[in-house]
Amino acid sequence: MLSPANTPAGMKVEPLVSLENVGVRRGGRWLVRGVDFSVSRGEIVTLIGPNGSGKSTSAKAAIGVLKPDEGRVARIAGLKVGYVPQKLAVDWTLPLSVRRLMTLTGPLPEADIMAALEASGMAHMLDAQVQHLSGGEFQRALMARAIARKPDLLVLDEPVQGVDFAGEIALYDLIKSIRNTTGCGILLISHDLHVVMAETDTVICLNGHVCCRGTPQTVSRSPEYVRLFGSRAAQTLAVYSHHHDHTHLPDGRVLHEDGSVTDHCHPEDGHHHDHDHGHDHGHAHSHDHAEAHAHAHADGHQSHGHAHAEAHAHTHTHFQSGAKSGEDRHA
Ligand SMILES: Nc1ncnc2c1ncn2[C@@H]1O[C@H](COP(=O)(O)OP(=O)(O)OP(=O)(O)O)[C@@H](O)[C@H]1O
Questions:
Q1: pLDDT in tens, 184-213
Q2: Is it the case that residue 89 has pLDDT exceeding 60?
Q3: Any idea where the ABC transporter domain is (predicted)?
Q4: According to the model, what pLDDT value does residue 57 have?
Q5: Closest residue (by CA) to atom 8 of ligand 1?
Q6: 26: Cβ below 6 Å to ligand 1?
Q7: Contact (CB, 8 A) for 190 and 155
Q8: Residue 263, SS3?
Q9: 281: which of 106, 230, 263, 277 fits an S-S bond (Cβ 3.0–4.6 Å)?
Q10: What is the DSSP letter of 27?
């Protein structure tokens, strides 16, 4: 495995992609600002945050699909990106087999198609119609498609959407095994504020900017969590909790915890208090988190404790971005 943890001590690894103070402005307002994070080979970075908090925007800026209005994005030369979008622009009235899905945007050697489907547990569904796949199978097919071109960086936008709890664990297992066998870097997007993959090296919590970051606290030590979800779940999932200190109003302005309202939110505006949960919220909280998780899954949606009333649009038509270097893209 090529995890940074396994690289020889003192050896500096150049990140596959790094964002520095990135801001994206559209329609007269900042969608995200002050975003900085990097993803290295073998590393799993998870972006969490409520709906509309800028996760997809930040990921798109990272892979070069979207040009930032401020800040810098650097990518290693020739970076190959596999992108599993949140939504697909597919005409569901036309028949589409899994095999065809694999080659929609370009031919692939048969051996690579089969190896990717094999790795994703989908080889037996080669001729199945995509329309008939379950949520979990569909995500696996998309993942197979993304890994077939052997990317350096795999970007997964909400890979567990529409997937039940057991399927979620299985998908996280698959993501872990992709990382372990290929050594690629993984940027994972989740709107679930309570649960992230245990293997996540860094969690970046977005709320229009980086609200907090840290290592996820594993809950495997919490007897309550194990009792609720079983030891298998406890081995696979971890919990990362946080608190948002501001609310985005429908008109784009920001209501802060102290009652003041500003036009934008920005880490430097004096209203934000970053929490490094690696320090602030340790194991003592794991019992509460496990309960939060139980509720989230029992009623089918999460309570974020954060009102975000904005409508948002998705443009998720890219399967795969053959991003070259960031400088090329931004020239
Ligand atoms: N091209 C655009 N023009 C204007 N606003 C946009 C554009 N793209 C995204 N937005 C807005 O930017 C905000 C962030 O969107 P983004 O899709 O990055 O959020 P997200 O955290 O990924 O949300 P979700 O969890 O709902 O997918 C949203 O309020 C969205 O409406």
A1: 999 999 866 556 777 888 888 788 888 777
A2: yes
A3: 17-232
A4: 95
A5: 313
A6: yes
A7: no
A8: coil
A9: 277
A10: T
Length of the chain: 331
Instruction: Kindly list the strands in the beta sheet with 29-39, ordered across the sheet, starting from the edge strand earlier in the chain.
Output: 29-39, 17-26, 70-75
Residue 75 near residue 220 (C-beta atoms within 8 A): no
Whether 191 lines ligand 1, by a CB cut-off of 6 Å, is yes
Look at the block and give the residue holding tokens 């880490």: 267
Q: Report how far residue 267's alpha carbon sits from residue 250's, in angstroms, rounded to the nearest whole number.
A: 20
- Residue 253 in this model has a pLDDT that exceeds 90: no
Cα–Cα distance for residue pair 311/267, rounded to 1 Å: 23
Round to whole Å and give the CA distance between 153 and 79.
7
In degrees to the nearest 10, what's the CA dihedral of 104, 110, 115, 116? 0
Residue of 22, 32, 55, 57 with the most ligand 1 atoms within 8 Å of its CB, for mutation: 57
Residue with tokens 């005409």: 91
User: Three-state SS for 197?
Assistant: strand
Which range of 41-50, 213-222, 286-295 scores highest in mean pLDDT? It is: 41-50
Q: Output the residue whose Cα is nearest ligand 1's atom 3.
A: 26
- Mean residue pLDDT of the chain comes to 71
Please give the model's pTM, rounded to 2 decimal places: 0.70
**pLDDT exceeds 60 at position 151:** yes
Structure tokens that stand for 310 in this block: 């904005």
| Helix, strand, coil tally for the chain in percent (to 5) | 30, 25, 45
| Nearest Cα residue to atom 30 of ligand 1 | 312
Confidence of residue 232 (pLDDT cuts 50, 70, 90): low
Q: In the structure encoding, which two tokens stand for residue 213, read together? A: 């970051």
